[in-house]
Amino acid sequence: xxxxxxxxGYVDVMILSILRGAPSYAYELAHTISEVSEGExxxxxxxxxxxxxxxxxxxxxxSYPGLSPSGKPRTYYRLTPAGSSALVEKCEEWAxxxxxxxxxxxxxx
Length: 109
Prior knowledge:
By secondary structure, the protein is of the alpha+beta class. The chain is 59% helix and 15% strand.
């Protein structure tokens, strides 16, 4: 299991990446994160909501009202053009970060 501390700086990348494919709502985002990580990371609701609100305040995602298939109201999130650009930048940053850290852990695992 990956600790929340280790992944904290990359939650935004995960959310933006999921929203790149299609709009989503919070529960579905959390489920997708757990599914894609194959259960190695489960995001807490408070972490998720804080992240989407931060991304929304930054103009990287926008929220809009929608309905679930059962008719319940939901808040959906979608990527903005600024969010698409930020995702590319964050992925480039991740690649550089991973490259540096890999140099230190090379041969340990």
